[in-house]
Structures
1.
Amino acid sequence: MIECKDLKKIYINGDVETAALKGVSFSIVKGEFVAIIGPSGSGKSTLMHILGALDSPTSGTYFLEGKEVSKLDDDELSELRREKIGFVFQAFNLLPRTTVLRNVMLPLLYSDTTEKEREDRAKICLKYAGMEESKFNNLSNQLSGGQMQRVAIARSLMNNPAIIFADEPTGNLDTKTSHVVMEAFQELHRKGHTIILITHELEIANFAERIISVRDGAIESDVKKNIQ
Ligand SMILES: Nc1ncnc2c1ncn2[C@@H]1O[C@H](COP(=O)(O)OP(=O)(O)OP(=O)(O)O)[C@@H](O)[C@H]1O
Ligand SMILES: [Mg+2]
């Protein structure tokens, strides 16, 4: 599903060059639940942006489902993101004075669907993400952090993505709430989604079945666990 070879990313700001990725290679097969772990500044978000087709590498090759991503034009890239990828971020990025249901319906607003279809799909995704039905019409700023993140997960599912990328999805949550959210990801994994989750906490990474450690722009270790 994902195959990358010798990915390098150099950021240039004026005369300052930062080598954020220094030659990263790995592959991820369909249905895997992978955590990418590493300290702050190690290149995790940079890697996720490349894998999620939000940014391109300075050099190296990246294949997503057989397509070489760097060869795609902007239209093809947005089509790829729209059809294959879901994103979940640390800061939830929900519209605050908008209901849970409306927030989740949003990604399909400009698609060829009726309001009713979007609403039905949003309800399915919310239930799928473990959100209690009694909260569907609450405003999103009236929720707990864990509930907000479940709404964000539901929203990422609206396009039925083959891959879900999550960058520090538990970064704003307390330990107990983090575990609830990680269980939601484990459930999605059991249902067959490919999940790539970024964290700097080993405890959170341990919810995944494979842990790739990144340090200073390079892969330090890549370990598969025998869980389940
Ligand atoms: N747009 C940018 N321009 C210049 N340098 C950047 C840019 N984005 C990231 N960097 C640098 O690249 C390196 C890797 O950053 P990245 O955001 O990938 O780290 P990270 O592992 O996600 O860290 P964190 O855990 O703090 O989120 C850092 O040294 C960072 O300062
Ligand atoms: Mg980051």
2.
Amino acid sequence: MSEAADRHADRLAEQLREMILIREFESRVQSLFSDNELPGFVHLCLGQEAVAVGACSAITDDDYITSTHRGHGHAIAKGLDPDRMMAELFGKETGYCGGKSGSMHIADVDRGMLGANGIVGAGQPLAVGAGLSIRNADSDGVCLSFFGEGAMAQGTVHEAMNLAGVMDLPVVFICEDNGYGEMTPAEEQHHVEGFEARGDVYDMPAERVDGMAVDDVYEAVSDAVDRARDDGGPSLLICETYRYRGHYEGDQMDYRPDGELDEWKERDPVDTLAASLVESDELDESDVEAMYDDAEERIDEAVEFARDSDSPDPASAFEGVYTEEI
Ligand SMILES: Cc1ncc(C[n+]2csc(CCOP(=O)(O)OP(=O)(O)O)c2C)c(N)n1
């Protein structure tokens, strides 16, 4: 096998490992939540793992991302520590935000994870700010900005895409088109089909990508990132994907046509990649099983860490509300 083919196979195996870790994290969060161990709300990204992993493996630790209310996969793919993420979900002081944010606002600025966000469409103006800071620092960094197709109708997203275009900022807008905004199908929320035309409006390259195929996402994001690093400005990618669970845990999911979920599961991003790596002899079945075992063990550790951690001191509720320096 050529060196390039070797590197490609190694990358796919690593991406499989990361997707399996996200899947195990999310599956465990699902069961912990149903056992009433987690306060607040959780929105799971089961089914959407290939977008997070394909995109984040196309950037470096020094680059930025902004995320959404469905952000656990983005955070893990950006390299955040499952211990501190799980502790945040448990509301413990060892969590990324001291146990005060819960699932929807996990952030680790040092790692370039500028935050999950409970406000739909709030990440995109932040991404423009990150793009501007990259420009001002004269660096060749880039910011990936994830959002759902529901956010496409938010004014903030239009403004952010317009400004990123006007200023030629290094931002890659990544729309996770999972077909639903809460319980409403996308076609009932948006007058135009697909969102590629938005690229013309803001004069930026736009492309629809198979969001169930990690390699396709990786290639498309890599091209957009190269362009952004090369002063080529922002891009828009629409990744077609599907969420296996409801909008939030507890959603009855009775608005989806019979059979739709099963159809998407036939294209499951984790299973299809695992099967193709086994078929091409890059991996054995036992390698894939080991990845699942490792991920399960890693998540066991994260849950133990979270359970063993202390709750925050109530007095800390006022910390981080106002800045101390102006
Ligand atoms: C500004 C704002 N409006 C409404 C909501 C309520 N809300 C939370 S998630 C959601 C749907 C988001 O759909 P989409 O952007 O497609 O993301 P998905 O949930 O499919 O990942 C809505 C309307 C909100 N959080 N923020």
